[in-house]
Amino acid sequence: MTSADQSTPPRPPARRARRADAERNRAAIIEAAAVVFAEQGCAVDVREIARRSGVGMGTLYRHFPTKDELLATVLEREFTAWLTAAHQAAAATEDPWEALTGFFEQALAHQAGNRALVESHTATGAASRVCARHREAFIDELRTRCVDAGLLREGVTTADLVLLSASLSQVIQATGDSHPGQWRRLLRISLDGLSSRNTEPLPEPGSRAESSANG
After folding, report:
1. What is this structure's pTM?
2. Which of 65, 109, 130, 181 is deepest in the core (most CB within 10 A)?
3. Residue 20 or residue 43, greater confidence
């Protein structure tokens, strides 16, 4: 071994330490952002997120060059955790109707406690297109269970249930400050209308042209 070899410090441990620091910073940013977005909504200043996470703005921007990227990361994480819990709850519920109604109650309660989540849901329907497809597939499973058990009103489609969820999300956003529990009342009314006890045929959805003409 030469003297040059002996004097050269080992570099891999230092690089690993830097990577570990970067991972901790990224995790801290995401955790802080999740709290701040939930409290204040999508329009929050990222400086508040940096302050709460204990990192500088330069560090925040190295991990997330735009606020939209950070928001998407947080919302997708929230969605994944929620959907996992929703699947587990539905699997543990033998009654198909209770599984369906429990899904709506869980989803809307989750949104009611997270301003960014409900803002995103009312604006785009989900955190991302992939999230929207996963949610729609799950709703379709719940609907099919109710149909097979004869519990769902005839003619109710998966698209109806997806739209109902989006509509109630708008109720949460519109009444969250003045009447924060209003969505629960409207959910009960809506669920009653979905029951197979109602045998009156549902109106056809109609085309966009017909809707425009009637308007």
Report:
1. 0.78
2. 109
3. 43
